Automatic annotation (TrEMBL):
One of its GO terms (cellular component) is cytosol. SUPFAM superfamilies: lambda repressor-like DNA-binding domains, RmlC-like cupins. The lineage of its organism: Bacteria, Pseudomonadati, Myxococcota, Myxococcia, Myxococcales. This is Transcriptional regulator. Keywords: DNA-binding. It comes from Cystobacter fuscus (strain ATCC 25194 / DSM 2262 / NBRC 100088 / M29).
Amino acid sequence: MGHGLADVKSVRENTPPSSEEAEVAPAKGRKRESTAKKVAPPVADAPTSEEEWAYEVAHAEASTDLAPIVGRNLRRLRTQRGLSLERLAKASGVSRAMLGQIELGQSAPTINVIWKIARALGIPFSALISTTAQTGTRLMRSQQSKRLSSHDGKFVSRALFPFDEPRRVEFYELRLAAQATEAADAHPPGTMENLVVTSGTVEIDRGEERHVLTAGDAILFEADVAHVYRNTGNVDAVMYLVMTYAETVG
């Protein structure tokens, strides 16, 4: 996703450039970014300083065992493309310091951050969280699932597909906390989202459109404009999303 999701965000959506460059210094177990010179207009809603750190680091309940996997994949894919951390930071809108922490496996990034990096590298979301390819029947036990979370833990995505072969379709389980909202940027042209709500009530805003879905309702829409998922109820909402791309990814 996404995002992509948060919406949900596409794994291939293009990210506008960001200019933030920052250094990380330890401070009682947390990293703080110093004031950086702006060389280009920042992303409109990009947080800074301590807000940015909270925004970029996954909630404590997110899968920390993904951190080394994402780190190894990020370093390999970045170096294959001949990109420095600084150039990738400008392309993705994720700070240079955070990218460095992710590559070292010292930070578990949020769903939002993984999407931003994937967009900037022009790769599917799953390429950053994939492990060794396997063949034959694949059984993915719920208790062994890798779950990605928003920074506040109110939005959680679980991929229900293997990550190691090219595909045009991805399948996700999404959970959105009561009264929570998750925003998604526009995906590449031709991307379709087919979503069904299995529990709770969810509002979906797509551009000027607004649709209310309750348990059992489904929706199919073109995801090439910004969209928002909003849980208007008092219980967590559960959704299943099939995302289809115009071209094969992976």
